[in-house]
């Protein structure tokens, strides 16, 4: 499993790990029941605190992407279509929010942004 940490990013390291593992699960490069590296092994590989990796794994478990079996390790959970759809919706929502913020920073009115959105939707 290849995870790249950007130490100069404003995004916390545990979030970088969460996002990359989620991405690998969603794109199918990490299959259900695949064992993740142990907290110690991944922290050693990434040269970060084991607590940071543990926090990332805990977030992944809370989101339903990982199942941890005490004494055995953490495994990729069987992902339902609903969870995948929800994650995809979150990504689209974040992209739309960013586009709206950019439009507003360019002094566009909400009506102008809506008109532009509708125009683009018609062309697709």
**Uncertain segments:** none
| Name of the top-level CATH class of the largest domain | Mainly Alpha
Count up the helices: 5
Oligomer: single chain
Largest sheet, described in full?
Answer: 2 strands, antiparallel
Mean pLDDT: 92
The CATH architecture of the largest domain = Orthogonal Bundle
Q: Rg to the nearest angstrom?
A: 18 Å
Kindly identify the CATH topology of the largest domain: Arc Repressor Mutant, subunit A
Class by SSE composition = mainly alpha
What is the CATH superfamily label of the largest domain? Winged helix-like DNA-binding domain superfamily/Winged helix DNA-binding domain
The beta-strand count equals: 2
Helix content: 55-70%
Q: Give the CA-CA distance, first to last residue.
A: 36 Å
Offer a quick outline of the entry:
This protein is mainly alpha-helical and 124 residues long. The protein contains five helices and two strands. The chain folds into two domains: 13-76, Orthogonal Bundle (Arc Repressor Mutant, subunit A), CATH 1.10.10; 81-123.
Give an overview of the whole structure.
This protein has 124 residues and is mostly helical. It folds into 2 domains: 13-76, Winged helix-like DNA-binding domain superfamily/Winged helix DNA-binding domain (Arc Repressor Mutant, subunit A, Orthogonal Bundle), CATH 1.10.10; 81-123. Helix content is 60%, strand content 6%. It contains 5 helices and 2 strands. It has helices at residues 13-26, 39-46, 50-62, 81-105, 110-123; strands spanning 66-69, 73-76. Strands 1-2 form a two-stranded antiparallel ribbon. Helix 1 (13-26) packs across helix 3 and helix 2 (39-46) crosses helix 3 (50-62).
């Amino acid at each position: 499993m290849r995870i790249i940490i950007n130490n100069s990013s404003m995004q916390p390291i545990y979030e970088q790990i969460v996002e990359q593992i989620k991405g690998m699960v969603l794109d199918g490069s990490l299959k259900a029941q695949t064992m993740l590296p142990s907290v110690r092994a991944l922290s050693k590989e990434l040269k970060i605190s084991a607590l940071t990796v543990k926090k990332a794994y805990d977030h992944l478990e809370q989101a339903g992407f990982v199942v941890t079996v005490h004494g055995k390790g953490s495994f990729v959970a069987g992902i339902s279509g609903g969870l995948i759809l929800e994650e995809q919706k979150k990504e689209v929502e974040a992209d739309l929010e960013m586009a709206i913020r950019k439009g507003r920073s360019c002094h566009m009115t909400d009506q102008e942004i809506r008109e532009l959105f509708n125009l683009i939707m018609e062309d697709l």
